[in-house]
Amino acid sequence: MRLITILFVIALPILGTTQERGPSGQWSLDAEGAEGDGWKLSPIHGTLSLEQNGDKITGSWIGPFKENVWKLEGTIKDASFDVQSDQRDIPVTRDGVTTMEPARWVFKGKASGDTMTGMMALDRGPSALREQAFSATRTR
Questions:
Q1: CATH number where 46 lies
Q2: Radius of gyration from C-alpha coordinates of the chain
Q3: Is 7 left (phi over 0), alpha (psi -120 to 50) or beta?
Q4: What's this model's pTM, rounded to 2 decimal places?
C-alpha cells in the first residue's frame, strides 16, 4: 500500500504538467487536403511554435516553404486558441496570370496534452477563405 501511495504522489505532478501546458511549445503540424467549388488545397506539413502568456499567444508558422517564417499573434479562451499571422503579399496564379495579393495565415484550435487539432486557412479575403483541418503533435 505504501509503494502505491509513493508512486501516485510521484506520478501525479508529471501527469498534471502534461495536461496543463496548453498550446505553448513547438508543434509538428499536418493539414489535410481540402476541396470546394472550383478549388483544391493540397495537404500541408509545417512547424507551429506558440507561447502563451495569460490570454495572449504569440509565435510563428513555418510552412511548406521553409524560408518563409510568419509571425503569429492571437488569444486563448477556455483552452481554444485563435491566432493569425501578419499580412503579406503573396503570388497567386489564376488562368496562367500571376499577381500579388495580400494574405495571412489563420489557425483556430485546441491543445490537449501533446496533441492539437483545429482548422487553418491562408486568408486572402472573404471570397477566398478556404479552411482545412489540421492535427499536430508537440515536439518540444
A1: 2.40.128.120
A2: 18
A3: alpha
A4: 0.78
- Closest alpha carbon to 106 in 115, 93, 96, 119: 119
Cell of 45: 506539413
State the total domains in the chain: 1
Grid cell, residue 38, equals 472550383
pLDDT (average), residues 29-57: 90
Distance CA 23, CA 50 (A): 6
Instruction: Let me know if residue 43 belongs to a domain.
Output: yes
The separation between CA 26 and the C-alpha centre of its own chain, rounded to angstroms, equals 10
Number of Cβ within 10 Å of residue 5's Cβ equals 9
Highest mean pLDDT among 17-21, 22-26, 88-92: 22-26
Measured distance CA(113)–CA(18) in Å, rounded? 5
Range of the domain at 82: 22-138
In a domain, 10, yes or no: no
On whether residue 6 sits in a domain, the answer given is no
In a domain, 52, yes or no: yes
